[in-house]
Amino acid sequence: MWDTTDGAKSYGYYYPPLNKEYQGPEDEQPPLLVKGFAVLDVNYRGSSGYGREYRDALKKKWGISDIEDCCSGAQFLADTGKADPARLLIDGGSAGGFAALAALTFHKVFSAGTSFYGISDLVTLAMDTHKFESRYLDTLIGPYPQDEEIYKARSPINHTGQLDCALALFQGSEDKVCPPDQSIKMYEAVRDKGRPVVYKEFE
């Protein structure tokens, strides 16, 4: 648990680096930990298991509170000597990919990041998402198109000039929930601004 800069508390699981010389009997180690990386799995606001108030704290705040929790969690590890502040990385898939893109775009905490089939444009998501989740964003952000300006303001694709670190994007070519266009447009926008970026699509 750590304090966030907006006066809340957030939660997560910290996994320190492992001793890669250890050989058994349980010698299959998670690849990041054995390479000397520590990992923080953030259960940001909106997650269950921490009470109703915490679960409801993401309502109308998606792209704000969750990003704050990720950034403040990484900063907490750096401040307490558990991570190198100059080598903090972030990654995530789908909504977590959106969190990674937003953290890299709107904050200066991480040195690089990866988005797996992430969301870069909330307006496009609102217009094109599948029927099952078509009203989901009303709760997380607000009704569309009434709150279109909020959607635009929280979309990383509209603020790529603020992103100044390395970015990798991975995408499935047939993804219907987070279509390739979300990653492709982000890649093109970041590339056109001369930032280090790579895009890989899988069939």
TrEMBL record:
GO biological process terms held by the UniProt record: proteolysis
Coiled-coil spans in chain: none
Alphabetical list of SUPFAM superfamilies matching this protein: alpha/beta-Hydrolases
Transmembrane segments: none
GO MF annotation list: serine-type peptidase activity
Domain Peptidase S9 prolyl oligopeptidase catalytic residues, every copy: 34-200
Name of the molecule in the record: PFAM peptidase S9 prolyl oligopeptidase active site domain protein
Gene: dap2_2
